[in-house]
Amino acid sequence: MRTALAMSHQFDALLDQLPRATGSSRTTLRLDWPELGFHVDDFAGKALVPGEKSLRGQRGINRRAVATVQWLDRERRSLIQDDFTTTDVPSLPALIEVCGARAQMFAPVIRNGGLQGWVSVHYTGSAHYWSHANVEAIGDGGAAGPGIDRQVVAG
After folding, report:
1. Are strands 79-81 and 45-48 parallel, antiparallel or unpaired?
2. How far apart are CA 36 and CA 117, in angstroms?
Protein backbone atom coordinates (compact mmCIF):
# COMPACT_ATOMS: atom_id res chain seq x y z
CA MET A 1 0.00 0.00 0.00
CA ARG A 2 1.26 3.46 -0.89
CA THR A 3 1.79 5.89 1.96
CA ALA A 4 0.50 9.47 1.99
CA LEU A 5 4.09 10.74 2.06
CA ALA A 6 5.10 8.67 -0.97
CA MET A 7 1.99 9.76 -2.85
CA SER A 8 2.58 13.39 -1.89
CA HIS A 9 6.08 13.18 -3.38
CA GLN A 10 4.60 11.71 -6.59
CA PHE A 11 2.04 14.50 -6.73
CA ASP A 12 4.79 17.10 -6.18
CA ALA A 13 6.73 15.64 -9.11
CA LEU A 14 3.68 15.82 -11.38
CA LEU A 15 2.87 19.36 -10.25
CA ASP A 16 6.45 20.49 -10.95
CA GLN A 17 5.53 20.41 -14.65
CA LEU A 18 2.74 22.98 -14.35
CA PRO A 19 4.68 26.19 -13.57
CA ARG A 20 6.73 25.65 -16.73
CA ALA A 21 3.67 24.69 -18.78
CA THR A 22 1.57 27.63 -17.59
CA GLY A 23 4.02 30.38 -16.63
CA SER A 24 2.56 30.25 -13.12
CA SER A 25 4.17 30.95 -9.77
CA ARG A 26 2.69 28.09 -7.80
CA THR A 27 0.55 24.99 -8.22
CA THR A 28 -1.24 22.89 -5.64
CA LEU A 29 -3.26 19.71 -5.37
CA ARG A 30 -5.84 19.35 -2.62
CA LEU A 31 -7.65 16.05 -2.05
CA ASP A 32 -10.24 14.62 0.29
CA TRP A 33 -8.99 11.08 0.76
CA PRO A 34 -9.08 10.38 4.50
CA GLU A 35 -8.07 6.72 4.13
CA LEU A 36 -4.69 7.95 2.93
CA GLY A 37 -4.46 10.95 5.25
CA PHE A 38 -5.34 13.64 2.71
CA HIS A 39 -7.83 16.43 3.40
CA VAL A 40 -8.50 19.48 1.23
CA ASP A 41 -7.61 21.81 4.09
CA ASP A 42 -3.92 21.04 3.40
CA PHE A 43 -1.94 20.17 0.29
CA ALA A 44 -1.58 16.68 -1.12
CA GLY A 45 1.07 18.15 -3.41
CA LYS A 46 2.55 21.48 -4.45
CA ALA A 47 5.15 23.13 -6.62
CA LEU A 48 6.47 26.65 -6.10
CA VAL A 49 8.91 28.69 -8.13
CA PRO A 50 11.79 30.02 -5.99
CA GLY A 51 10.77 32.85 -3.69
CA GLU A 52 7.05 32.02 -3.56
CA LYS A 53 5.27 31.65 -0.21
CA SER A 54 3.40 28.52 0.80
CA LEU A 55 0.20 28.07 2.79
CA ARG A 56 1.15 24.45 3.63
CA GLY A 57 0.12 23.49 7.12
CA GLN A 58 -2.42 26.32 7.49
CA ARG A 59 -5.43 24.13 8.10
CA GLY A 60 -7.68 26.67 9.81
CA ILE A 61 -9.53 27.55 6.60
CA ASN A 62 -12.60 25.55 5.58
CA ARG A 63 -11.67 25.21 1.90
CA ARG A 64 -15.01 23.75 0.91
CA ALA A 65 -16.68 27.00 2.08
CA VAL A 66 -14.53 29.16 -0.24
CA ALA A 67 -16.50 30.56 -3.19
CA THR A 68 -14.10 29.16 -5.81
CA VAL A 69 -14.45 25.63 -4.44
CA GLN A 70 -18.22 25.92 -4.20
CA TRP A 71 -18.20 27.00 -7.85
CA LEU A 72 -16.07 23.96 -8.80
CA ASP A 73 -18.38 21.63 -6.91
CA ARG A 74 -21.43 23.08 -8.65
CA GLU A 75 -19.99 23.46 -12.19
CA ARG A 76 -17.58 20.47 -12.35
CA ARG A 77 -15.32 22.25 -14.86
CA SER A 78 -12.23 24.43 -14.69
CA LEU A 79 -12.49 27.93 -13.28
CA ILE A 80 -10.21 30.40 -15.07
CA GLN A 81 -9.59 33.79 -13.44
CA ASP A 82 -7.26 36.20 -15.24
CA ASP A 83 -7.71 39.01 -12.73
CA PHE A 84 -9.07 38.82 -9.18
CA THR A 85 -10.32 42.41 -9.39
CA THR A 86 -12.78 41.60 -12.19
CA THR A 87 -14.16 38.22 -11.13
CA ASP A 88 -17.62 37.33 -9.88
CA VAL A 89 -16.22 34.39 -7.88
CA PRO A 90 -14.03 35.76 -5.07
CA SER A 91 -10.80 34.02 -4.20
CA LEU A 92 -9.48 33.09 -0.79
CA PRO A 93 -8.24 36.31 0.89
CA ALA A 94 -5.15 34.58 2.36
CA LEU A 95 -4.05 33.59 -1.14
CA ILE A 96 -4.06 37.25 -2.14
CA GLU A 97 -2.74 38.73 1.13
CA VAL A 98 -0.08 36.13 2.04
CA CYS A 99 0.98 34.79 -1.35
CA GLY A 100 0.27 37.82 -3.54
CA ALA A 101 -1.76 35.82 -6.07
CA ARG A 102 -3.65 37.91 -8.63
CA ALA A 103 -4.81 35.28 -11.14
CA GLN A 104 -5.59 31.57 -10.93
CA MET A 105 -6.96 28.48 -12.59
CA PHE A 106 -8.75 25.66 -10.77
CA ALA A 107 -9.45 22.22 -12.22
CA PRO A 108 -11.68 19.76 -10.39
CA VAL A 109 -10.62 16.24 -9.48
CA ILE A 110 -13.76 14.12 -9.76
CA ARG A 111 -13.81 10.65 -8.24
CA ASN A 112 -16.82 8.39 -7.72
CA GLY A 113 -19.08 11.17 -9.00
CA GLY A 114 -18.01 13.74 -6.41
CA LEU A 115 -15.54 16.60 -6.09
CA GLN A 116 -12.59 14.76 -4.55
CA GLY A 117 -10.30 17.77 -4.77
CA TRP A 118 -8.74 20.21 -7.19
CA VAL A 119 -5.58 21.39 -8.85
CA SER A 120 -4.92 25.10 -8.58
CA VAL A 121 -2.46 27.20 -10.54
CA HIS A 122 -1.65 30.74 -9.36
CA TYR A 123 0.08 33.77 -10.81
CA THR A 124 1.42 36.33 -8.36
CA GLY A 125 2.11 40.03 -8.59
CA SER A 126 -0.33 41.03 -11.33
CA ALA A 127 -3.25 39.91 -13.43
CA HIS A 128 -2.37 37.28 -16.00
CA TYR A 129 -4.07 36.14 -19.19
CA TRP A 130 -4.25 32.34 -19.26
CA SER A 131 -3.81 31.08 -22.82
CA HIS A 132 -5.62 28.13 -24.33
CA ALA A 133 -2.42 26.08 -23.88
CA ASN A 134 -2.28 27.08 -20.19
CA VAL A 135 -5.86 25.95 -19.67
CA GLU A 136 -5.20 22.66 -21.48
CA ALA A 137 -2.20 22.04 -19.20
CA ILE A 138 -4.46 21.73 -16.15
CA GLY A 139 -7.21 19.76 -17.86
CA ASP A 140 -10.95 20.11 -17.38
CA GLY A 141 -13.96 18.20 -16.20
CA GLY A 142 -12.02 16.05 -13.76
CA ALA A 143 -8.92 15.45 -15.87
CA ALA A 144 -6.87 17.73 -13.68
CA GLY A 145 -3.33 18.16 -14.83
CA PRO A 146 -0.76 15.89 -16.40
CA GLY A 147 -1.27 12.53 -14.74
CA ILE A 148 -3.01 13.85 -11.64
CA ASP A 149 -6.38 12.34 -12.53
CA ARG A 150 -4.81 8.96 -13.24
CA GLN A 151 -2.94 9.06 -9.92
CA VAL A 152 -6.09 9.83 -7.97
CA VAL A 153 -8.26 7.24 -9.71
CA ALA A 154 -5.53 4.60 -9.44
CA GLY A 155 -5.50 5.03 -5.65
Report:
1. unpaired
2. 14
